[in-house]
Amino acid sequence: MIGALTILTGPGGSGKTTLCRELAAAARRSGCDVAGVLSLGRFAEAQKVEIEAMDLRTGETRPLAWRHDPTRPGTLELCSWSFDEAVLAWGNELLRGATPCGLLVVDELGPLELLEGRGWSAGLEAIDSGGYDRALVVVRPGLLEQARTRWPRAALVDVGDAGARGRFEALFNGAASSEPEAR
Questions:
Q1: Which residues span the domain enclosing 52?
Q2: Mean pLDDT value of segment 40-45
Q3: Which DSSP helix (H) or strand (E) runs through 171?
Q4: What's this model's pTM, rounded to 2 decimal places?
Q5: How far is Cα 58 from Cα 132, in angstroms, rounded to an integer?
Q6: What CA–CA distance (Å, rounded) separates 95 from 14?
């Protein structure tokens, strides 16, 4: 049986966001109320150059981040990325209103959230609330220790492990189709 909270991890480009999007669509088709945010990468010549945030309830997207650009106002800088603070605030509002729901997706919680208490901090609160039947949270391998400390009972799926991913998809899709949500 799938745990209520599953941490999805894997290296960049391993398909974490794609898996979240596919599982959210499958859950929605089965009648589940799906809430949360996806971080959709935009690529140029095989390199991620932008990230769009998507509201999973409405499908609305907004430009969240781009490769560092010091000329754009209202940004939060982290490594080589510039984040739009207004879109971070929008994402936090979505996450504050995400629960209760059948499936909560938070793609992704990174150093801003897990190390600095910034970024989509409301995602941490939504997950901690337990106000969902199932939740998926994306965390990069380098931050697993922090995530496992915060959520020690969470199941862990390495998306880069094709066998583990396939077993998880089969279990999740079976649970989604057998547990329609009326929220």
A1: 5-178
A2: 89
A3: helix 162-178
A4: 0.87
A5: 18
A6: 25
